[in-house]
Q: What sequence folds into this?
């Protein structure tokens, strides 16, 4: 082979050059898309963080709102924070037992057809828009009885249920059948096996699912608009029979105001809400990793 | 129990604690307050909100210890809330429609304040009270027939004002609103086209686009952030947010703006209060008596069920608010005192509430 | 996103003993009751919405879907502008978000140096965590003025010949603002699901392609994208479902206009969910309330269809690949 022919073989052909150019172009596009997305994300997150953190002060968490204040009055959103705590807490208390029981039924008792059907039911429930859930609870509970934190909690519980049920089903399925068979072989009744042996293995996953569900609904506004939005009490109110103000609804109302003071409090509340959601998501992830590692290690 | 019992035990303890806490909160809250132990909960009109939340609420609480909790969700929502008995009283600037009255099952409307809605503008270079409009031109603007601030019809009304060549953005309420009711009531009287095509209600089919704002504060916000826009808000919000008012020509030919005196002048129009409480005082006629009247004045009503567990508290609060002293206390938010005739009807209706 | 893996093995039925203890019955009964409750709950939601809309269904029928305008005074109600608004905003958001999301997912799995991966992933997760009301707040105060003062005039002057970019809206609120806000909301959903899907592509397949001499882009196009096609489609459908159901952020930034259907994206508008959030309690008549329930019914039907469809796509993909898709 001549030197010319050899170097011709080693030189990239036109076709290869074109393919490499296309590849470089696509990589550039991917970098650009990523940069654009990161820029957008960064702008939004930093915007919320910066404005929120700068307006944050202790008054927000300790003082009550003073509507139509003349001049600058020290006010805050203590009623919204206590209301949110009550409503989310009650919603969690309502959802956890039901979600776990549903998951136990789906995974341990249901025949295949019912299992598929229930799986569909849970997924469909997860897809109902939050505003429709709010309208539903309004029609079911609020009409004739009035708004209340309980009604709001119920609406949030409907939203949380699919999350908790799904997470619990998945962790229950991960528990090996050998465990159940061993218990059966030792003569344990089914209920004892499920509650005393299988379920404890899944506690990590259940807690993760619960925490994720809390993170999901802590910021929900739509279901609370019609179920618990007319409570503007003069101070912290813990009574679940009242309609309590909540942080997302407060932010919604303040965002429609013309007052810079209102906007400042909206940003501060948004910051606190976001921090809460991030913290709960992070702890959920940490818990998930922990329980995953545990299950991978096997039964002790 | 498996060996990783520590996590299980912690989780069980936490779960039990959470459930106990929830139950404790519920019980303590329920026992301790007995449906807010004397506080009155209301919702509705954002027009009356400065009076109820800003003045009456705090004053009544310091006088009697009974708290007033009010949410300015709009007149439409206020009617819905009291119909659902979700609140102790509703508040609306618009009288209830026959359908709404029927659904409310024996609610009475008690006029308890007198105020106004007015157009506001945000034209760069034009200050408050400088822009002059007639009812007809205002209607044409909202109908989309006048679309530019430099329109000759507007120039004719404002010869000394330098109106820019820019398209007009109309702003209206996107929620059900008593201000919308008063505004459209007025437009229906000054424009036949408006009356036949759009009509009056708490929520109408606004022609030709524009932008919607939620609540009086939402409209104020949109107008303030949109140059070359025009909107309508209740006068208390104009004062609070330093918005630019527009002077309207009343039927007598004078260019007036909302003030306690001009509202009082318009309120003379009420000769009797019918059962359905439709006492419209918009567009008073062209006579000497109404020469200074503001043409978009409106009464605002507390809506209360005749049969209520809180009858005594409601009678006390509303009766107190109807008093001359309380009517005067809200004047700096541009509320005029109720005319004697209307106040008498209000007191009579108040007597009908029983538990 | 996850689906119940109901294609599990039959071996999960080890209990075949004939003795039934009372404790077993109690547990099965309670759990069964809870499961029945979940099903009943779903039925109740559908029933309540249908019941509420019955008056409107019988009075306004299908013409409701085409009629544009919401006129309580003359009792002319129509979902036309809301269907239009919902379609425009959600499809627009999907079109904008998908390439960005796929770009970010590919970047994170194929291109990014390892020290960038963790922070960017964290950024995406943080954005997913921001509640819609906060994004709406940001939309009103930051995004609206930005679009009004800079972006919309620029788009109009350069691309104004396209009817989509007509006269800018001086308030900064409108369908375009809503599209941007919705894009920001669904971007993290599609991005994080796609990223996990891309990570799940077996390395042998990728290496085989590279070993045959393909460029990285050709490998992505020929191996990764086809392999994850179903999952990515499901992620897009879920993002669409989220955008359609979003009520609060839309109520804050879309401009609240009920009777305008035009090509100009800068105009104000409203969606099904946004209208419900703003006006659900303000009805002046039975027919109007029923009309609002009719809107809720349309929204519900759409989200049910979207969900069942996404679920079937995921199942097909999972079965084909033997994976539990998370």
A:
């Amino acid at each position: 082979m001549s030197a010319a022919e050899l170097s011709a073989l080693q030189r990239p052909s036109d076709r290869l050059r074109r393919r490499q150019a296309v590849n470089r172009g696509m990589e550039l596009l991917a970098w650009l898309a990523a940069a654009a997305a990161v820029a957008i994300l960064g702008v939004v997150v930093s915007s919320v963080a910066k404005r929120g953190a700068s307006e944050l002060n202790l008054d927000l968490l300790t003082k009550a709102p003073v509507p139509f204040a003349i001049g600058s009055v020290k006010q805050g959103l203590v009623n919204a924070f206590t209301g949110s705590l009550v409503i989310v807490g009650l919603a969690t208390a309502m959802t956890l037992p039901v979600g776990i029981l549903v998951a136990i039924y789906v995974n341990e008792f249901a025949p295949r057809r019912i299992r598929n059907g229930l799986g569909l039911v849970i997924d469909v429930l997860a897809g109902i828009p939050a505003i429709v859930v709010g309208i539903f609870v309004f029609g079911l509970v609020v009409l004739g009885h009035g708004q209340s934190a309980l009604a709001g909690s119920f609406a949030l519980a409907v939203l949380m249920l699919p999350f908790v049920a799904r997470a619990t089903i998945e962790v229950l399925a991960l528990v090996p059948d050998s465990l159940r068979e061993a218990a059966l072989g030792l003569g344990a009744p089914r209920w004892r096996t499920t509650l005393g042996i299988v379920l404890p293995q899944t506690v990590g996953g259940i807690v993760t699912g619960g925490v994720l569900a809390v993170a999901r609904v802590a910021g929900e506004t739509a279901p609370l608009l019609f179920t618990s939005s007319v409570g503007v009490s003069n101070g912290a109110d813990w009574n679940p029979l009242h309609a309590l103000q909540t942080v997302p609804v407060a932010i919604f109302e303040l965002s429609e105001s013309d007052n810079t003071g209102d906007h400042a409090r909206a940003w501060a509340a948004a910051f606190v809400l976001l921090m809460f959601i991030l913290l709960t998501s992070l702890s959920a992830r940490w818990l998930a990793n922990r329980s995953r590692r545990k299950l991978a290690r096997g039964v002790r | 129990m498996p060996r990783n019992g520590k996590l299980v035990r912690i989780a069980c303890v936490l779960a039990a604690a959470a459930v106990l806490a929830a139950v404790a909160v519920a019980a303590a809250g329920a026992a301790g307050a007995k449906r807010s132990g004397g506080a009155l909960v209301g919702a509705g009109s954002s027009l009356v909100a400065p009076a109820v939340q800003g003045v009456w609420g705090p004053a009544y609480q310091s006088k009697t210890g009974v708290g007033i909790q009010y949410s300015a969700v709009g007149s439409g929502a206020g009617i819905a809330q009291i119909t659902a008995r979700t609140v102790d009283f509703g508040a609306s600037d618009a009288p209830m429609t026959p359908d709404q009255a029927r659904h409310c099952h024996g609610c009475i409307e008690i006029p308890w304040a007198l105020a106004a809605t007015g157009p506001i503008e945000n034209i760069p270079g034009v200050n408050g009270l400088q822009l002059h409009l007639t009812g007809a031109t205002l209607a044409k603007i909202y109908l989309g027939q006048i679309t530019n601030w430099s329109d000759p019809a507007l120039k004719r009304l404002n010869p000394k004002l330098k109106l820019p060549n820019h398209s007009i953005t109309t702003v209206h309420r996107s929620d059900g609103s008593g201000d919308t009711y008063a505004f459209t009531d007025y437009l229906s009287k000054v424009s036949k086209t408006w009356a036949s095509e759009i009509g009056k209600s708490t929520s109408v089919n606004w022609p030709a686009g524009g932008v919607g704002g939620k609540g009086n504060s939402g409209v104020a916000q949109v107008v303030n952030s949109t140059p070359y826009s025009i909107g309508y808000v209740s006068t208390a919000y104009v004062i609070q947010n330093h918005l630019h008012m527009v002077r309207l020509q009343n039927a007598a030919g004078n260019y007036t703006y909302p003030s306690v005196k001009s509202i009082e002048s318009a309120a003379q129009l009420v000769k009797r209060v019918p059962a359905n409480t439709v006492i419209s005082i918009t567009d008073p006629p062209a006579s000497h008596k109404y020469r200074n009247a503001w043409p978009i004045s409106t009464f605002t009503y507390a809506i209360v069920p005749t049969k209520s567990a809180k009858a005594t508290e409601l009678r006390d609060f509303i009766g107190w608010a109807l008093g001359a002293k309380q009517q005067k206390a809200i004047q700096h938010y541009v509320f005029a005192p109720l005319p004697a005739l209307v106040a008498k009807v209000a007191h009579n209706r108040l007597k009908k509430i029983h538990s | 996103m996850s689906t119940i893996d109901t294609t599990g093995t039959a071996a999960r039925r080890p209990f075949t003993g004939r003795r039934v203890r009372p404790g077993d019955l109690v547990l099965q009964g309670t759990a069964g009751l809870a499961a029945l409750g979940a099903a009943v709950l779903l039925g109740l939601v559908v029933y309540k919405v249908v019941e509420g809309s019955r008056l409107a269904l019988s009075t306004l029928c299908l013409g409701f879907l085409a009629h544009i305008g919401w006129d309580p005074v003359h009792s002319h109600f129509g979902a036309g502008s809301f269907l239009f608004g919902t379609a425009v905003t959600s499809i627009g958001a999907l079109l904008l978000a998908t390439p960005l999301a796929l770009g970010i997912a590919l970047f994170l799995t194929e291109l990014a140096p390892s020290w960038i991966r963790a922070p960017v992933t964290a950024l995406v997760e943080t954005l997913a965590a921001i509640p819609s009301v906060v994004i709406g707040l940001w939309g009103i105060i930051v995004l609206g003025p930005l679009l009004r003062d800079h972006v919309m005039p620029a788009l109009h002057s350069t691309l104004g010949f396209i009817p989509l970019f007509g006269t800018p809206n001086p308030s900064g609120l409108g369908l375009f603002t809503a599209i941007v806000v919705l894009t920001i909301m669904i971007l993290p959903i599609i991005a994080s699901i796609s990223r996990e899907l891309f990570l799940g592509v077996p390395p042998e397949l990728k290496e085989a392609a590279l070993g045959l001499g393909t460029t990285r882009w050709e490998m992505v196009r020929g191996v990764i994208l086809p392999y994850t096609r179903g999952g990515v489609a499901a992620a897009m459908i879920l993002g669409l479902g989220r955008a359609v159901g979003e009520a609060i952020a839309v109520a804050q930034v879309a401009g609240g206009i009920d009777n305008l259907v035009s090509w100009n994206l800068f105009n104000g508008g409203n969606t099904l969910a946004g209208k419900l959030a703003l006006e659900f309690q303000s009805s002046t008549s039975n027919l109007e309330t029923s009309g609002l329930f009719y809107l809720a019914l349309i929204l519900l039907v759409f989200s049910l269809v979207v969900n069942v469809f996404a679920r079937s796509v995921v199942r097909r993909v999972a079965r084909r690949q033997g994976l539990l898709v998370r």
